[in-house]
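This entry is listed as follows:

___
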Amino acid sequence: MPSPLAPLLEDIRARFAHVDECPFAGPRIFFENAGGALTLKSAVETSAKFAAIPDNQGRDNPAAKALVGIIQTAKADMATFFNAPSGQFFVGESGTELLFRLIRTAVMGAKGTVIGSTIEHPASRSAAQIWAKNAGVDYISVPHDAARGLVTAQDYAAAMTPDVRVATILHTSPVTGMGMDIAAISQAIRAVSPDCLIIVDGIQHASHGGIDIAAAGIDGYVVSPYKVFSRHGYGVAWASERLSRQPLEALMGGPSENWEMGTRDTGAYATFSDVVAYFDWLGGQVSDATDRRARIEAAGHAIHAHEKHLTDTMLNGTGNLPGLTDLPGVQIIGGDDNPAREGLVCFVMDGMPAADIVARLNDQGIRTHVRKADHYSGNVLDPLGLPAAVRVSLCHYNSEAEVTAFLSAMKKMSDDA
């Protein structure tokens, strides 16, 4: 099936900085999007604009009032993008830092058993285990399906107990690329513990579209904007009203239920508005929707379809070029036919270390990444007996021609082995 974004790809790519060239190395194909997606040119311009403004919010002058208005607009944009009719959004140092804050607040406030899964990134898994230990409460570790690279609602349900008060869920794995059904997992948790505080790591998922907080039934959601077309230096978190009523770290005598600490970076908020505007634009190109949220949803569906087309091509081949599954000795992490896949293929090849494959691809101008069995990826690779794997991560601005170049390089590598 052809991609719905194919006719728009030239226009899409024109909106991103360094889409086909590295400012240090020259021309290249960027398949390292899970490590940090390309940045919208609009976000680059917005970031520079606000970096030059000396005024702070909260003063009695026109600039300060304008900055407050920009932040309020950005929070409204976030509410639309994430489909969060209640609760509050705020920015922090990074996605990891915000996950630690939300999980620490939940665990120390709820004082009950904590549950999470082995598929999680350490940003949430470490935070949950550290603060469960500090609070003197139990931590339940739900084992993921190593062969499929994901965890299910049934897996959580089998481990749940009524005294669970805090749960963490990974939306999409940055190692396997598989997305979790967070609404189903949340429902399974609440069937046993209705008042459980549920916090989701959405960092890897965000660039692939399709975030719906209202439908998920959760209490916290965190993204890293540099992985969803904005810049480094901040994270975005949403907290439900229930979570915000827990004891928060805040200035004495300051407003209650306030997550923000210190002066906000207006440029961070404004660049996320650029991200929302881009999804809005894209949704308008692929649908006739007149409602902004509907356009954002349409963009997510189109992104998913385009990325599935690319990963299917990468796995199964195109024209006379074999796909990864046709090359001898290749093992696809999570399986080669997994409907949960989101724009990412992770693999190993017999007789060739992952680092060597990545280096040879890099020599040909194809940027990929090694995932080692370390504190970031050992939870996925160790059960498979793998010391490392090659991660090829795509986004919707990548093209079939780029996938074809990758497959050509891999075929030559296989032939030479």
Notes: Residues 140 and 378 are 19 Å apart (CA to CA). The two ends are 33 Å apart (CA to CA). The first strand starts at residue 21 and ends at 22. DSSP finds 14 helices and 17 strands in the chain.
